[in-house]
Amino acid sequence: MKSRKWAAFLAASLILAACGNGDDAVDEPEVDETEDGEVDEPDDVEDDPAATGDVPADWPEELVLTLQPAENPEALIDDADVLAGLLADRLGIDVSATVPDDYQAVIVGLQTGAADIGGGFGPVNVARAMDQAGAEPILQSERFGEFLYVSQWFTNDPDTFCSDEPVEEIYEEDGEEYTMLFCNGVNEAETSEEGPIGLDALADVGDVPISFVSEGSASGQVFPAFGLIEAGFDLGELDTFTSGGHPESVLSVYNDDATVGVSYNDAREDLVAEFADVGEQVVVFAWSAPIPNDGFVVRGDLPDDLKQAIADALLDVAQDEQDGAVLLELYNIDGFRPADPADFENARQVDQELGELLG
Question: In sequence order, what are the residues at sequence separation of 6 or more whose Cβ sits closer than 8 angstroms to the Cβ of residue 320?
Answer without folding.
Answer: none
